Amino acid sequence: MNNMVIAIDGPAGAGKSTIAKIVSNKLDINYIDTGAMYRAITYKAIRDGIDINDEEALIEMAKKTQIDFKDNNIYLDNEIVNEEIRTLSVSGNVSKVAQIKEIREIMVELQRKMGKRYSVIMDGRDIGSYVFKDANLKFYLTAGINERARRRYVELKAKGHKINLDDIVNDIKNRDDIDSKRSFAPLIKADDAVEIDTTSKNIEEVVSDIMEYIK
């Protein structure tokens, strides 16, 4: 690979996206939120009334969907959908969509093309273990489930969503179960990834840890 590829994997709510954005700015490289790609597909399905359990319809829709990133914005068919893909309904269904093998293959192809075009930092579930096995650096961020739920609760409340913390805990448990048990490219820590437990660390501490490894 001619470009630098940094992979950040981990479960929902571990802080991957927040950390990856900051590191991308410090290194002046492109940030690709792969989880947002699956959220965009899920959001489009919900918006267009496609049954989340109809795999064939979801796959056909994904084949005809354009997803791109620019200036830390995600574009779905040339429309910015940063906020639309972060609703609780999308969160509750994204793991079902992301476990479909054909959809993952479509998204992975897009991700690999991005990694060939320019230096990137990508976060997701299977970047270091599957999408970019030869990534220059790999990190695996994790945190206790209650802390991950608390973070998501604070994030959604700040955006005006009416939510229950117990519902978020159950949602994250469900997503962890689906992500780690799916047959194709499950959530696992790559053997050569640096694991960082973010439970008791603030954002600045995690960024500092990662920048030290990169240096």
Task: Describe what you observe in this structure.
ATP binds at residues 10-18. It is found in: Cytoplasm. Pfam families: Cytidylate_kin. This is Cytidylate kinase. Belongs to the cytidylate kinase family. Type 1 subfamily. With 215 residues, this protein is of the alpha/beta class. It has one domain (5-208): Rossmann fold (3-Layer(aba) Sandwich), CATH 3.40.50. It is built from 9 helices and 8 strands. It has helices at 16-27, 34-47, 55-63, 88-98, 101-117, 127-131, 145-158, 165-181, 203-214; strands spanning 5-9, 30-33, 67-70, 73-76, 79-80, 120-124, 137-142, 194-197. The strands form 2 sheets. A 5-stranded parallel sheet has the order 2-6-1-7-8, sandwiched between helices. It has a 3-stranded antiparallel sheet with strand order 3-4-5, covered by helices on one side. A hairpin with a 2-residue loop joins strand 4 (73-76) and strand 5 (79-80). Helix 2 crosses helix 4 (88-98). The protein starts with a strand and ends with a helix.
**What is the level-2 CATH architecture name?**
3-Layer(aba) Sandwich
- Unreliable stretches: none
Number of domains: 1
Shape: globular
Number of strands: 8
Strand content: 15-25%
Order of helices and strands: EHEHHEEEHHEHEHHEH
Could you please say which CATH topology applies here?
A: Rossmann fold
Rg over CA atoms:
16 Å
- Average per-residue pLDDT, rounded, comes to 94
Task: Characterize the main sheet.
Answer: 5 strands, parallel
Major beta sheet, strand line-up: 2-6-1-7-8
Tally of helical runs: 9
Helix content: 40-55%
- The CATH class, by name, is Alpha Beta
Gap from first CA to last CA: 19 Å
CATH superfamily: P-loop containing nucleotide triphosphate hydrolases
